[in-house]
Amino acid sequence: MTTGDLSTLLVWGAATAFTVALIAYSVDLARIADRAQKRVPEAALAAAPGGRPATAVAGSEAQSAPGRSARAEGIARSTTLLGLVLLFGGIVLRGIAAGRWPTANMYEFTLVGVFVAVLVLTIVQRRRVIAFVGVVVMGIAVLALVLALNAFYIQADQVQPALQSYWLILHVGVAITATGIFTVAFATSVLQVLRSFREEARTEVDAPAVTVGAAPARSDRFRRWVGGPRFGWLEQVPGSRELEALSFRLNAVAFVLWTLTLIGGAIWAEHAWGRYWGWDPKEVGTFVAWVVYAAYLHARTTRGWNGRRASYFVFVGYGVVLANFTVVNIVVPGKHSYGGV
Amino acid sequence: MSVHRPEGLSDVFMEPTEAPPAAPPTLPTLGFVGWMRWAWRQLTSMRVALLLLMLLAVAAVPGTVWPQRAQDTAAVAEYLTDHPTTGPWLDRLGFFDVYSSVWFSAIYLLLFVSLVGCILPRTKVHLAGVRGRPPRAPRRFARFPAQGSGLVDGPPAHVADDAVAVLRGGWRWLPFVPTYRVDTRDEGDGTVAVSAERGYLRETGNLVFHLALVGLLLSVATGQVLHYRGQAIVVQGRGFANAQVDYDTFEQGTAFTPSSLVPFTLRLDEFESRFDPDTLQSRDFTAHVTLTNPGEEPVEETIKVNHPLDAGGAKVYLQGNGYAPDITVRDASGQVAFSGPTPFLPQDEVYTSRGVVKVPDVSGDQEQIGLVGYLLPTVDVRETAFGPAYASVNPQPDDPALVLAVWQGNLGLDTGVPQNVYELDEARMTQLMEDDDKPVTLVVRPGETVDLPDGMGTLTFNDLPRYVALDLRHDPALPFVLVFSLLAFAGLATSLFAPRRRLWLRLTPGVDEDAGRTVVTAAGLARGDDVGLQPELDRVLAQVLARTADRPPVAPRGPTSGEATP
Ligand code: HEM
């Protein structure tokens, strides 16, 4: 067996470990949802007279949140760590097999990106497991790894002259790291939005007068749905403000790295192609993602846009980041067609 | 001083610490000036900045959907032929020149106007703030996100001294830089309030970031008008001079002056290429050149992909390479009609290279000849039902061969219309055929001479030198572009990660059984989400209390504070 084959085997191992982790997180989430659904009637009753949603309290001191499965969380944690170790080994062996830094094609991007995303996930979950974020990030991680192994895979090999540069480490490595962090931030923002809708819906249960007279819009129906028993598990997650703060911190770090990617890419393009900016499709994609995240940071501090509305920019931004990695590499012709697919 | 802030900015640090008396709503003064003022405030508002940012993101997308002239003129032409109805409309609306279109430019220019209109007043306010005192302590601390309290022996004045010392104490690794700017105010009745603020860097970083973006835009624009760029194909053993006429294509900015072309010369001595023996993918290209700057000795240099050569204030890039078969064609009378290397363009990874040789008539009343075909660096001949098929199997010139079709007629060289040297204008030419109606195919190896059909003459394949495609670019604004990018990056990182905090301590003389002691209450406020705020407040409070407790009593306590609190 060659080093390259061993690397692939380790990556398959990591994909398997992450799949187990995904299942464990899902079981944890299902358990929480299950219990929460049973508890909802009492909770609603208890909250009614106080006028203050019980959610805020339950959310902020959730260590003892009932319904979580310690066993599932333990399994999730350990398989996540195992997967990280295997994936790390796979990446290192890949680099050895190719005789260079392993970030030169889509297969390798995906491995490293998944590694960073899961690493950040473990750091974020170090004190407290948020099952939902685990499910989303692990879901993306497993999907990406399987896609990488089946669709993006190419033999470990050296690279063409244009890629022989330390910028392969700086520019590409930083871009992938940023993508990994954006992934966890995205999952956090999804949860934040759900949680925020739920908080709003619960407040309306307490003070229904607010909506009287207003025609039930689509967002209202969604709010009522999220406020219903099906989403009872949302009581167990941190409050939306806390999640917003977490998502912002992650996004801020990733955005700074993305800025570095943009600058590094321009410097490299200046060396390799004789111009620092040429509106190549990949450059455009990176630029658009940057502008969208800049808009997100602005929205956070714009009255009327902060909170839930700002996090919609995170969804758009993350979508652009993913499209820039997949669609632009595969479909659009350009100077960045190194994907090898 | 009026506090300026962009319309719609929500920022706890700009809210007054106490609720101001409600100002009567002011209607915009009618008239031109009033409207202009109103429009300006809208343009520089956060909401419009947000809108323009989103528009910019959306407007950049079409450039990846439709082919762009700046990158690929041929693709645009093809699109226009394929879409005769929609194509011209898209063209009129600028969809093939998105990044220089009116609408794209309008968006980013408006954005930058908004940015300047927003940032300059903020810079002024910030500079005033940096020179001023930290804001006075609010009357009530209850609504602040971080709070604390304590009780300590000693009068408020002592505690205040200790608080100032603790807050001014620098970081351990930067002992001379105070962490907080501190101010104490006597609030009467023996009560002392300590205000402290840190993190002016955060706002500074934000302003530097935005201003650097303006600098970046200006640098890029300057480079655009001053730059020049030329492309030249240089065959091994030959050279070129840095002069406009020596380039195959030359492009310049509107304010370009020919004096920025330093007249150096460059000769290609040798070209090396390395390919992976199994996959045949390229691994390394190196051009060995001799550079002669005006008035200097020639020096040997190398140019590689990723490693351009600096020459005469410009950079020379290795953009491409290939083979330029050196051919001599003699006409029927034995006169040399054509001689020299002709660059053939590689079409694939094994350097199957296509080229055209145009042989003009030299000795009167003879037809002109066009040779069209391929150079195969390592030829592989396979017999098929239709005759031999030639293909290249390796990019290295192990067994090169020229495979050419022959045309005869008028090349159209004297029509005055500029010709593409890589294409044959077949309009007034006919291809020569064998008797069995198959096209004539000449196959020549280096050193060989073959007869042209119909006694038109001979063709000799002398040699197979390499050529490089060089791209030369001069952009005097490059250092500025780099500096402003890095400034923007540094400013951004600072503004996102430097904590901006305000701490207040109110030191009130104790009463009754606490007489002679000081009641300390504290509050903290941070810009944005700041998980470190409460821990910081706790640390400061603990240090102040410990410090005062350890202090030997210097003044008789009791009386002073006793008098102050009746
Ligand atoms: C080229 C256009 C612009 C870009 C790319 C941009 C980008 C950014 C980014 C990335 C941030 C977050 C980093 C930080 O907090 O310092 C930010 C913050 C900010 N921007 Fe901009 N900006 C632009 C234009 C504007 C304009 C036109 C305004 C004014 C209307 C503005 C006002 C602000 C303010 C007030 C903040 C600070 C928000 C806060 O953290 O409190 N920006 N900008």
From TrEMBL, chain A:
Q: Which GO terms describe its biological process?
A: cytochrome complex assembly
Q: What InterPro entries does the entry give?
A: Cyt_c_assembly, Cyt_c_biogenesis_CcsA, Cyt_c_biogenesis_CcsA/CcmC
Q: Which GO terms describe its cellular component?
A: plasma membrane
Q: Where are the transmembrane segments?
A: 6-27, 81-101, 107-124, 131-154, 166-194, 250-269, 281-299, 311-332
Per UniProt, which keywords does this protein have? Answer: Cytochrome c-type biogenesis, Membrane, Transmembrane, Transmembrane helix
Gene Ontology molecular functions: heme binding
Q: Among its keywords, does the record have Chloroplast?
A: no
Q: Where in the cell is it found?
A: Membrane
Please give the chief subcellular localization of this protein. membrane
Which residue range or ranges hold the Cytochrome c assembly protein domain? 105-331
The record ties this protein, via Pfam families, to: Cytochrom_C_asm
* Membrane association type: Multi-pass membrane protein
**Protein's UniProt name:** C-type cytochrome biogenesis protein CcsB
Task: Write down the species.
Answer: Cellulomonas terrae
UniProtKB/TrEMBL annotation, chain B:
What's the chief localization of this chain?
Answer: membrane
Q: Does the keyword rRNA-binding apply?
A: no
Compartments, as annotated in UniProt: Membrane
Return one Gene Ontology term, BP aspect.
cytochrome complex assembly
Q: Where are the transmembrane segments?
A: 46-66, 98-120, 207-226, 477-498
Q: Which residues form the ResB-like domain?
A: 46-538
- Keyword presence, Isomerase: no
Q: What is this protein called?
A: Cytochrome c biogenesis protein ResB
